[in-house]
């Protein structure tokens, strides 16, 4: 099993090529959360994807309210990101060095950043993303700096992605059980999966197939010790047939096996109740309230201090 995770030393300049926005949010949120835990200043350069990342951080149980107020977490507004990508390349690298120095002066262990940079494709005279990444690689070697570059298939042409893969020393790799751009299913541990996105008629059969495969492993005693756990913290929507399918999957389990749904959103929990989940003896679930900051709220909290 391969699970997407931040690459540690010796690679501090890492590439991810998401196949969906769910993977983008997953990779970026994990990278930023690791920096917060390590005492680094973290920054996200927004260009209309900050909402995805903030939502995933909330789903992962990462409270960014304090880091935003202290200045440890900085959300760079989209207009600044776009303006920076149109600046001369020497100004970009100089700005990067200034930000590293500012983070160290404020008492943080270093600087870690990621962002959505596709506006650079619309730069007059053509993109400079390849040259920018070459200079970023030099800066990473010389400073306490970590960068996750995001080049997803939804926003970048395949030729540029191939070029960027050649420029980066490491790439995040992941082997999801399923990803159709609407729903992403990952195995986070033996007999433990995470569903992120939405379940509807288009991917319902894939959900049932994945659960059946994992249930078979549990029944055979290969994992889980009689328990299959599904984390639904990032499952925003499930249709009625999908909820019924989850209940039926539990109903069909041997008496020695249970299906546990964790961190279910209240709306999904109410639908499960209406579809008979309370009468399924081998189905259990926990509900978690969540509040994800929107980008405007995050920007409103920022700047409360310098650490």
Account of the protein in words:
The chain is built from 11 helices and 12 strands. The protein is an alpha/beta fold and 307 residues long. It folds into 2 domains: 13-175, P-loop containing nucleotide triphosphate hydrolases (Rossmann fold, 3-Layer(aba) Sandwich), CATH 3.40.50; 178-287, Transcription Regulator spoIIAA, CATH 3.30.750.24. It has a 6-stranded parallel sheet, with helices on both faces. It is elongated and about 65 Å long. It starts with 12 loop residues before the first strand and ends in a 6-residue tail after the last helix.
Write down the secondary-structure element order: EHEHHEHHEHEHEEEEHEHEHEH
Strand order in space, largest sheet? 3-2-4-5-1-6
CATH first level of the largest domain: Alpha Beta
Q: Structural class, judged by helices and strands?
A: alpha/beta
Please estimate the helix content: 40-55%
| Count of spatially separate domains | 2
CATH architecture of the largest domain: 3-Layer(aba) Sandwich
How many helices in DSSP terms?
A: 11
How many strand units?
Answer: 12
Q: How are the secondary structure elements laid out?
A:
Blueprint: E1 13-16, H1 21-37, E2 41-45, H2 50-59, H3 65-70, E3 73-76, H4 78-85, H5 89-105, E4 111-115, H6 129-142, E5 145-150, H7 158-167, E6 170-171, E7 178-179, E8 183-189, E9 192-199, H8 204-219, E10 227-238, H9 240-251, E11 258-264, H10 266-274, E12 283-287, H11 295-301
Parallel strand pairs: 1-5, 1-6, 2-3, 2-4, 4-5, 9-10, 10-11, 11-12
Antiparallel strand pairs: 7-8, 8-9
Helix pairs in contact: 1-2, 5-6, 6-7, 8-9
